[in-house]
Amino acid sequence: MPELPEVEMVVRGLRPDVVGRTFTGAVIHWERQIAPLSAGAFSERISGQHVDRLSRRGKYVVFTLSRDSLLVHLKMTGRLYVSLPDRQDDADRWVRAVLGMDDGRELCFSDLRKFGRLHLVEHAEEVTGNLGPEPLAETFTLDVFRALLDHRKGAIKPLLMNQTFIAGIGNIYADESLWLAGIAPRRGADTLKPGETEKLYETIRQVLQQGIEHEGASINWYRKPDGSTGTYQERFFVYDRAGQPCPRCEAIIQKTRIAQRGTHYCPSCQV
DNA sequence: CCAGCCCCCTGTCGGC
DNA sequence: TGCCGACAGGGGGCTG
Questions:
Q1: Cis ω for the linkage preceding A36 (within 30 of 0)
Q2: Banded pLDDT at A220 (limits 50, 70, 90)
Q3: Which of A30, A57, A96, A185 is 20 to 30 Å from the Cα of A76, by its Cα?
Q4: Å between A13 CA and C15 C1'?
Q5: Among A213, A215, A217, A183, which residue's Cα sits nearest to residue A198?
Q6: CA A163-A166-A168 angle, 5° bins
Q7: How many helices (H) and strands (E) does chain A have?
Q8: Is the pLDDT of residue A238 over 70?
Q9: Against a cut of 0.90, is the pTM above it?
Q10: Is pLDDT of A222 > 60?
């Protein structure tokens, strides 16, 4: 569930606790969640590496280390938080990896569904190399968006969620941005009129920015590193609101499936 | 390039 | 009440 705004909150929350620290080792409880090394090799290789920088690329949390980069994808239920070794947190039941730090505290990766991944690689681009542009970057202009859409066919919603198209948009922010733009999720990408493309460009940036301002959407499992919840879920227009009236036209919001994903939309004012 | 499907997982929920 | 199957979902991988 964590999408761009939620991952951004994780990065901001962790930064003061991890930047400047040095990892002392790792205990891996579910080996399939780390790549590309074995658990032993992972622990050995991360030991002694200093955290120079913490950033975000798409939905990845990126630790820039002395020699390597550690990239964490939270997928659906992943959480990252720092704690003392004697933990009592709710999420501890699903801890899959624990990275020791030189201040005696630990960086914990918890993940109920085990879909998340920790990649320890020499160059971050080995993992993030084929991601599309960052939608909130200044360089992501309307012209860039138009160029990306050029010659793309197929439904607009799955395209928005395609990480090689644009990085960071998931199911929630795709549904919300399309509703705000008044565009039906099944519309062919090549059928958007210039005004619609511009509107969508603006609403994509708007919902992501709003998501960050409201500290992310906490539905189901997402929590900020300090355990608290964001509040953007209180501002959803269509996501998770099937059967309720559309905030714009009062038609009943529908839920359907597009590209194997639950999709919420207004059948009346999204055309 | 695109659509469809499987897979990875486990908690939750609806049906019987 | 208890069991069981369906479902949820990001993204990689595969096929057509």
A1: yes
A2: low
A3: A185
A4: 42
A5: A183
A6: 65
A7: 7, 11
A8: yes
A9: yes
A10: no
